[in-house]
Structure of Glutamyl-tRNA(Gln) amidotransferase subunit A:
Amino acid sequence: VAHYLHNIKQKPELNAFLELFEEEAFAQADAVDKKLASGQAGKLAGMVIGLKDVLAYEGHSLQASSQILNGFKSLYTATAVQRLLAEDAIIIGRQNCDEFAMGASNENSSFGPVLNADDPTRVPGGSSGGSAVAVQADLCLASIGSDTGGSVRQPASFCGVVGLKPTYSRISRYGLIAYASSFDQIGVISKSVEDAALLLEVMAGSDEYDSTVSHRPVPAYSQLLQSDKKYKIGYIRDCFESEGLDAEVKNTILGVKDMLQEAGHQLEAVEFPYLDYIVPTYYILTTAEASSNLGRFDGVKYGYRSENATDLTSLYKKTRAEGFGPEVQRRIMLGTFVLSADYYDAYYTKAQRVRRLIKDKTDELLQHYDFLILPTAPTTAFRLEENTANPLAMYLADIFTVQASLAGVPAISIPVGRDANGLSIGLQLMTRSFEEPQLLAFSNYIL
Ligand code: GLN
């Protein structure tokens, strides 16, 4: 704990943490020491973990990096966090992120951007930017983030660390602030695949507080990391031919592909004809869900309340206009538009259908191949403010991560190289739902 607190204080400019739980973390550490001495410590004894500011932790502030939740303290603890604590993890603090997890650069936080520790003129990716930088810069051992369309994988790729998004429903979402509920999954950012496996093992599984959670038994992922199997792997040709793909990213990923082929795995090019549709489909559905989920922040129940209101309607309007940042407002407007009576069928219903096509095609490919490989992101970490004036350019940063989110399948980003500027390049692997054991074992093998 002292080591990480020291590192955090050395580099305040990274802006990765919004709040530190210093005294509590030391107290937890003391308690763990005692348990270790009596041989009763849990599986995560001594692991120092940071939480993205979207995970509820009883008695602690919870804001989703937004002003609309200013002053709000959580009344309960997320199931996933509860399970970490039960296994003696130490929670060191609350991490900066894009407001309500909406963004791909961590520039949408009301607490200011997070800087990439490899090059502070660049973004860490988003929305779990603070969580990724915290692991990158050794400010904690691992972070718990959330991934709706890439928010764990893309910042992991930009920061040279491991980012795991499990199968949709593998981890209970109870206590995770909802962005787009049919996509949201809690995920892990860590230095090693072993840590990701162990944390998943502890957090996953049945929970009476989340009606969508899977009741499948949870494998001991951390015991299943050795694999000498030869796999059948598809690489999505359309991704490698897409316009915005940086040449160094492309060559690095193709280099891994060749390396796997030489090692005896069977690699084949596959077609995925919906690449042009995945980002629009994702943004129609997630903004629709977000506009509904964010309806509860009205100045009455949680956090911030405008002082300029004169009646109930103006209380709602002013609270929301003052409390939500520009990107969140944009998405609420987009979402209410696609759900409005005149446009519902043209946008929302159609996007639901396209989501089904994308899911079916992805599942079909994964019946033939154990893994699909592709880059995590089309570029390495871009410069601060490079994409802020153009939301569409920012949305395209998600082009390779949203497929797994639309399909609900598990996916991981692992660091496989660096570009000429020394910036990290991530390889993304997808596999069939609930096949995290082979996803983790194969990632471990590649790393
Ligand atoms: N960049 C994507 C978005 O802004 C992903 C966010 C996420 O996964 N939470 O929606």
Q: What stands out?
A: The radius of gyration is 21 Å. Residues 344-368 form the longest helix (25 residues).
